[in-house]
Design brief:
3 strands; globular
Length: 63
């Protein structure tokens, strides 16, 4: 897992989001019963993490 992905997951969990790992290594981020985003464990596209961060910000993540 990338350091940036790990930091984003820790930040989301600290702010009340629930994170679960799928069988294929992706991370599903939930706020209550609503799926906010899915983060790739090893993203090949540099925009992937930025897009996931944007989804989390729209759901209430404070950086």
């Amino acid at each position: 897992m990338n350091k940036d992905v790990r930091d984003l997951i820790k930040k989301a969990e600290a702010q009340g989001f629930e994170v679960s790992r799928t069988k294929k290594g992706h991370f599903m981020v939930w706020k209550g019963s609503v799926l906010v985003t899915t983060i790739a464990g090893t993203a090949s596209d540099y925009r992937s993490l930025k897009n996931s961060t944007a989804h989390l910000k729209r759901a209430g993540l404070i950086e």
